[in-house]
Design brief:
With 490 residues, the protein is α/β, with parallel strands linked by helices. It has 2 domains: 272 residues, Aldehyde Dehydrogenase, Chain A, domain 1; 191 residues, Aldehyde Dehydrogenase, Chain A, domain 2, CATH 3.40.309.10. The chain has 17 helices and 20 strands. The strands form 5 sheets. It has a 7-stranded mixed beta sheet with strand order 14-15-16-13-12-17-18, sandwiched between helices. The N and C termini lie far apart (79 Å). The structure holds nicotinamide-adenine-dinucleotide. Nicotinamide-adenine-dinucleotide binds next to helix 9 and helix 10.
Length: 490
């Protein structure tokens, strides 16, 4: 098999190997084979990246020259769009994405986000006059000024790396920050290629760094603990988010955390197209490796048997519509790694042990070679206290839970340590909206409505995180607000 080009570090304006020349294997989840090698960044490399980012922030005009920032980010967008084919190849071969999924959030979505992000950027009020005020016998003119927050350490996961890079790095750069991007070890190339694009676009040295590494924690922890890094923008698991909070405490690090989810979709008995709505709930997109995926399906007891029957047919009909990389009708490929597959299989085993009924899937397919596949899986007769209803599986597993009435549905949806997303479906929009407002999550779709978009803030309640990505709030994560009072001379 032909290998993809090697992933290089991008530090202080230079594309280069890791100090000492270390590399690590990048595995193709469809086959289990090595697809490329990436630079195994060292402590020395990260130190150099932090120094460069600090210098570019403190000593260059990056933080003050907004016209230059817009011009270069526009150039970066052009370079990225011109390289769509390369990005697709990486998303498929490194990330395990199926072509149907690439067309949406994995590649084409992020490429199309630039223009709407510029629109959001243009709404930022950089300076705001507050009313004059009389204090101690004199008049004070007051203004609020937005300023870039400084050096940003962007630590990202493997599931949708390009989407998250655009969501973090572009607002941070436009805000005037300098950035060090640290990819997950499973998907280094989707970040190292951003270094190549930044070099091609002509970014000044130090404005963007990309430092990949084999160890999942080493380089990220350097960013979290270093006093020269002002902001950590992290997307990943709740467990690592907690550790980052702990490790960031001594330097009182400013943290933005996008964490895990276990989101519920409530389908009420009065939904006119009940069977269609239930049948659409199969968890298949990118093999369920999505933070906001609706993985708990809540259906009314009064129509429970019907819902189970619909799902049984839907899963049977789904049959072989997954697992083919190049097929644009396929949304589901393998899991990212053997480790992740074992984790998912462990949850399936726990579901069976705890008494849930396996309605579909649950096994490793025998016809798909050595890729890290697990069949689309559905558990019914689940109670919300089971492990499979409480913990984030991050695989193609749906759990179905019956509810008694509206209050019970709200109670079950909210009985979770997570609070990322949700869905409410009903024939009565006012009822669905009333329930949506009581769900303790950062986004909720009503009757299939899209609550996630570039101009809408996205982020978790409870242990799904702190802060927001996208929307004007997504820019605020990279801005400080300064209040200035001017005593007006009499
Ligand atoms: P992870 O938490 O294991 O790793 C995320 C990143 O953190 C990786 O780059 C990893 O190398 C790094 N890391 C690991 N240990 C670290 C440490 N001690 N200090 C600093 N950095 C460290 O997550 P993952 O397995 O890569 O991704 C899956 C998780 O991401 C899921 O929980 C999913 O819900 C979450 N996620 C959340 C969102 C969101 O927007 N809320 C989006 C996508 C994924």
């Amino acid at each position: 098999m032909t290998l993809l080009p090697e992933g290089k570090l991008y530090i202080d304006g230079k594309l280069r190997d890791a100090t000492g020349g270390g590399k690590f294997e990048d595995i193709n989840p469809w086959t289990g084979e090595v697809i490329a090698y990436a630079a195994d960044g060292t402590v020395e490399d990260m130190e150099e990246a932090i120094v460069a980012a600090r210098r570019a922030f403190d000593e260059s005009d990056w933080s003050t020259n907004s016209a230059k920032r817009v011009e270069l980010v526009r150039k970066l967008a052009e370079v990225m769009k011109a390289n769509r084919e390369k990005l697709l190849e990486i998303a498929i071969k490194e990330g395990g994405a199926a072509m149907g999924a690439c067309n949406v959030a994995i590649v084409d979505g992020p490429l199309n986000f630039f223009e709407p992000l510029f629109d959001v950027y243009n709404t930022i009020e950089w300076e705001k006059a507050m009313p004059d005020k009389e204090v101690w016998g004199s008049t004070h003119r007051r203004i609020l000024v937005k300023e870039p927050a400084g050096v940003v350490g962007a630590i990202i996961p493997w599931n949708v790396p390009l989407y998250i890079t655009v969501g973090k790095v572009i607002p941070a750069l436009l805000a005037g920050c300098t950035v060090i991007l640290k990819p997950a070890p499973d998907t280094p190339l989707m970040s190292t290629i951003i270094g190549e694009f930044a070099a091609e676009a002509g970014f000044p040295a130090g404005v963007i760094q990309v430092v990949s590494g084999k160890d999942p924690a080493l380089l990220g922890e350097m960013l979290v603990t270093d006093p020269r890094v002002d902001v950590i923008s992290f997307t990943g698991s709740t467990g690592v988010g907690r550790r980052i909070m702990e490790k960031g405490a001594p330097t009182l690090k400013r943290l933005f955390l996008e964490l895990g989810g276990k989101s519920a979709s409530i389908i009420f008995e009065d939904t006119p197209n009940f069977a269609e709505a239930v049948g659409q709930q199969i968890v298949c997109y990118h093999a369920g490796q999505g933070c906001a995926t609706l993985t708990r399906l809540l259906v009314p007891e009064s129509r429970y048997a019907e819902a189970v029957m619909v799902l049984e047919h839907a899963y049977a009909a789904y049959g072989q519509m997954w697992g083919k990389a190049e097929d644009p009708t396929n949304f589901m490929g393998p899991l990212i790694s053997e480790r992740q597959r074992q984790r998912v299989l462990g949850y399936i085993e726990s579901g069976i042990k705890e008494g849930a009924r396996l309605l579909a899937g649950g096994k490793v397919p025998t016809d798909k070679g050595n890729g890290f596949f697990v069949e689309p899986t559905c558990f019914v007769d689940v109670t919300n206290d089971m492990t499979i209803a409480q913990e984030e599986i991050f695989g193609p597993v749906l759990v179905v839970i019956p509810f008694k009435d509206e209050e019970d549905a709200i109670r079950i949806a909210n009985d979770s340590e997570y609070g990322l997303s949700g869905g409410v479906t009903s024939g009565d929009e006012a009822r669905a909206l009333r329930v949506a407002k009581r769900i303790r999550t950062g986004t909720v779709g009503v009757n299939g409505g899209m609550s996630i978009d570039v101009d809408l803030p996205f982020g978790g309640y409870k242990q799904s995180g702190l802060g927001k990505e996208w929307g004007v709030e997504g820019f605020e994560e990279y801005l400080e607000t300064k209040a200035i009072g001017i005593r007006v001379q009499a």
